[in-house]
Structure formats: structure tokens, C-alpha cells
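Input (structure):
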């Protein structure tokens, strides 16, 4: 298993280009099932989660190939095994989003029921309820969700809100199924996340009729069939936010290109409150990009992120989009650990997503968990320690803390970070980080 050895503190300076979004790519890959034929997706990041999802599609019968220029080609002409195996679903919960498209295209599906994970219970009751509203018959057997729609799916008005608000992948599942259902579906309390808007745009390019994109009310006029298309996924706003925190926590200056600030207003608001300067690059010519970076154009617009006057405390509440994203909560906790004063972070999406608290405290942070909230008492400096990554975003927070901490931080189980950040050390080191990846037996 790999570990990171991080020498700190460092000041990060330079440029980085944001990759395509993992959380947009996964449902879009699932949606390619809806059209029999070859879809070509650009800007899909080269991550372990994407490889696992590719394996899942291959088990269904699809052929998935990645070309040298980074494009992912999915040939879904043949789907002869509509089963999401436990062995794959247990590795990645997002596998659940094959349920809707399989039902719509194939009329039946069997997908392992996802279990709990490091960030909480994560039920899928809303996915199931939404698909049942469209006419699917669903029951559970031996840990599997067995779904059938022998008479096809029928459009319906569906309220998809739950105790924690909207559901991202639940909306994706119902949206994909509704695209091929007979008649009109209205999803009320739909997730408004940019990744769901991107999925809806992809579906429309395939021939779906979806309106209200980006709003909590999606209206879908079902169509008879969808066709494969070429599509480029949006940049990853969570990766962009992580690099912004990297600039702030190291009092550095990072130019971040291929970053859509419009998708990050809550994040930008909190960063500015904290004392971070974020200047759009709009008026400047695009910087020269290293080979392999995505092409020029509007999406190349970026920002210069600096933080030179210390970190001010801030209160943060995570919420569904357009609120502050839960996927940046851990990274901001690392940053606010160094603020001149006390901050409160309230987690309203996954109230148990705090595995990083104890690990950051091992690095001399002063964090106290109170139910779904953490009180962050700012400290003057963080100290290096050996820490354990528990999930993707928690491990990103530990890497960020390691950049700022004095001494050698060892982050164990970095396979978590590889799920969502492509070669993070190879992107941070050119900015001035000192991160070494080492293979250790039995950690
Ligand atoms: N929920 C229910 N019932 C459901 C589904 C969700 O009660 O049927 C609850 C969840 O327990 C949670 C809340 O609703 O309290 C929101 O969960 P949601 O369904 O929106 O999460 P998700 O779709 O499973 C996606 C991202 C997560 C991200 C969340 C929230 C992907 C692949 N995953 O998960 O990303 O944290 O939305 O924004 O898109 C990550 O990238 O690190 C990650 C965990």
C-alpha cells in the first residue's frame, strides 16, 4: 500500500490546470448505457474510481477504452448482463447509478445494495422510491436490489427530497430512467449540483428532452430512444477548491486554470471571508499550458489565488448546491485550524463526516466535535505526525495539513486520495510541495 511522506512547511507558487470532474463523469458514463453504440467522453479524469466504473460497465457487456489523448470511449451496443456485482459496488457506491439506465434500456437490473461507508450511512431509499414512482417493481434479495419494469417506465410527478435535502445520485438515477420513460416526468426537489446539470446536458445532447436544468424542478418529456454522442465533462470544482485551499494554507500564490468560478460561489465567498484573494484571469491572456493539458477556450479561464495576511476564522455550514459543498468541508477544516480565532463548521449533508477530526488533532489542531458540528480553535502552527486517511476528502485535508505542518507528515492509505485526485503529488510538487509516494508492505 502507498503512503505519502510530506515535508513541511512549504509555500506553494505556480500554475495548475483542473481536470475534468469525477462526480460529473461517473453518472455520464452510466448514462452512456441508455444509447446502444459508441459514446466518446473527453476530460474524464484518470482516477481509480473511473477505472472501477469502467470495469463495472465492462461486466454489463460494454467495451470501454481510454485513448492516448485521454478520451474515454464507451461502446454500449451490447448489454447482456444487467448486474452490478457486490465486488464492484462495495468498492464504489456510485455504482448504484447504473440502476436507472439499466431499467430504462433493459427493463430489468440487479445491483448490489451499497453498505455504509466512512462518511456515514448513505441510504439509497430515495433512488428506489423514485424508480418505483416511474413504475419499476423493486425488491431486495440476498443484499441485491432487484428491479423490473416489464411494462416499461411511465412518467410521473416525483418529490425527491429527503431528510438531508436533495440527493445527487438519486436525482441522476431517476433523471436517466425518466429520459426513456413514456410521457412527462417532473422531479421536484431535484439536486441542482453542476454535475447533475452536466448530466442533463449530456442527456439532451443524446436526444432527451429535459428542461429546468440546474433548478430543483426538472421536467422530462420521455423519448423513444437516445443516441450515442461525443461530450466533454465539466472541470472538477472540488479539485479546484482543494487547490485554492492549498494556496491559502501555505500562504502561497497559485494560478488555477480550467476552473468555473460560477459553480463555486459559496466556496469563493468563504475563502474571501477567510482573507484569501481570488482574482479572475478573465482579462489576462491564457497562460501557456503544459502538453497534455486541455485545449484553449473559454473554459481555460481561471483565477489567481493568494493569501498573505493570515487566515481569519469563518463559520461554515455544508448544504446541497448552491450551498457550501460537503466535499470541501474537511479541506476547509484543515485551513481554519490555522485561523486567528475560533470557527464553527456544521455538516448538514453527511452529519457523521468527521473522520478527519481526530487525525488533524494528532497534528496539533484544536478541534472539538459536538454532534454534527466541529468547533475549530485556531492554533499558531500544525505539527507533523503519522496520520491515517479514511476517505477521499479527509485524505486531501491531511495532505493539505501536511504541507503547512512543521516536520515530516506520513499519510497512510493514500489509495483513498487516488480515487478522486489524479497523481496529486505530481501536481503539487511542481508548485513547491515536497511529497514522496512510497510503497509500504502491510499498512
Ligand atoms: N440520502 C438519503 N436517501 C437516499 C440518498 C441520499 O437519505 O436515497 C441522504 C444521504 O445520506 C445524505 C444526503 O441525502 O445525507 C445527500 O446524499 P446524496 O445522495 O446527495 O449523495 P451521493 O449522491 O451518494 C454525491 C457525491 C458525493 C457527495 C454527495 C453530496 C458522487 C459520486 N458522489 O454522493 O461525493 O459528497 O453527492 O454532494 O457524485 C466525494 O466525491 O468525495 C463524494 C463523497
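Output (sequence):
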Amino acid at each position: 500500500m502507498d503512503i505519502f511522506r510530506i515535508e513541511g512547511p512549504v509555500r506553494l507558487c505556480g500554475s495548475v490546470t483542473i481536470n475534468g470532474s469525477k462526480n460529473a463523469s461517473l453518472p455520464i458514463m452510466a448514462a452512456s448505457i441508455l444509447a446502444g453504440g459508441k459514446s466518446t467522453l473527453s476530460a474524464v479524469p484518470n482516477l481509480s474510481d473511473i477505472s472501477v466504473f469502467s470495469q463495472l460497465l465492462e461486466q454489463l457487456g460494454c467495451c470501454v477504452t481510454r485513448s492516448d489523448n485521454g478520451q474515454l470511449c464507451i461502446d454500449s451496443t451490447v448489454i447482456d448482463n444487467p448486474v452490478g456485482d457486490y465486488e464492484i459496488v462495495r468498492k464504489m457506491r456510485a455504482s448504484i447509478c447504473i440502476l436507472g439506465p439499466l431499467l430504462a434500456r433493459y427493463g430489468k437490473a440487479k445491483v448490489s445494495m451499497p453498505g455504509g461507508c466512512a462518511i456515514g450511512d448513505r441510504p439509497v431509499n430515495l433512488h428506489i422510491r423514485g424508480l418505483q414512482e416511474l413504475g419499476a417493481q423493486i425488491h431486495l434479495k440476498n443484499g441485491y436490489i432487484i428491479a423490473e419494469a416489464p411494462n416499461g417506465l411511465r412518467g410521473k410527478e416525483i418529490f425527491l427530497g429527503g431528510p438531508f435535502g436533495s440527493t445527487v445520485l438519486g436525482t441522476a438515477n431517476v433523471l436517466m430512467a425518466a429520459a426513456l420513460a413514456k410521457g412527462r416526468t417532473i422531479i421536484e426537489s431535484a439536486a441542482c449540483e453542476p454535475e447533475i446539470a452536466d448530466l442533463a446536458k449530456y442527456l439532451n445532447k443524446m436526444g432527451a428532452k429535459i428542461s429546468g436544468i440546474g433548478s430543483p424542478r426538472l421536467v422530462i418529456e420521455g423519448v423513444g430512444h437516445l443516441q450515442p454522442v461525443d461530450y466533454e465533462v465539466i472541470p472538477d470544482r472540488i479539485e479546484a477548491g482543494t487547490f485554492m485551499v492549498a494556496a491559502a494554507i501555505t500562504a502561497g500564490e497559485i494560478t488555477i486554470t480550467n476552473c468555473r468560478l460560477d459553480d463555486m460561489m459559496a466556496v469563493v465567498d468563504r475563502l474571501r471571508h477567510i482573507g484569501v484573494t481570488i482574482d479572475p484571469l478573465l482579462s489576462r491572456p491564457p497562460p501557456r499550458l503544459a502538453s497534455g493539458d486541455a485545449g484553449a477556450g473559454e473554459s481555460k479561464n481561471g483565477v489567481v489565488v493568494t493569501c498573505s495576511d493570515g487566515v481569519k476564522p469563518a463559520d461554515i455550514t455544508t448544504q446541497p448546491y448552491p450551498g457550501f459543498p460537503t466535499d470541501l468541508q474537511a479541506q476547509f477544516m484543515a485551513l481554519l485550524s490555522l485561523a486567528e480565532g475560533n470557527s464553527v463548521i456544521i455538516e448538514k449533508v453527511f452529519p457523521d463526516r468527521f473522520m478527519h477530526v481526530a487525525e488533524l488533532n494528532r497534528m496539533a489542531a484544536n478541534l472539538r466535535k459536538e454532534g454534527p458540528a466541529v468547533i475549530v480553535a485556531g492554533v499558531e502552527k500544525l505539527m507533523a505526525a503519522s496520520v491515517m486517511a479514511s476517505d477521499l476528502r479527509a485524505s486531501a485535508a491531511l495532505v493539505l495539513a501536511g504541507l503547512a505542518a512543521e516536520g515530516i507528515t506520513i499519510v497512510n492509505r493514500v489509495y483513498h486520495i487516488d480515487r478522486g485526485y489524479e497523481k496529486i503529488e505530481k501536481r503539487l510538487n511542481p508548485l513547491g510541495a515536497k511529497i514522496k509516494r512510497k510503497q509500504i508492505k502491510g499498512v
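Notes: Confidence is low (pLDDT under 50) at residues 289-299. Residues 212 and 218 are 5 Å apart (CA to CA).
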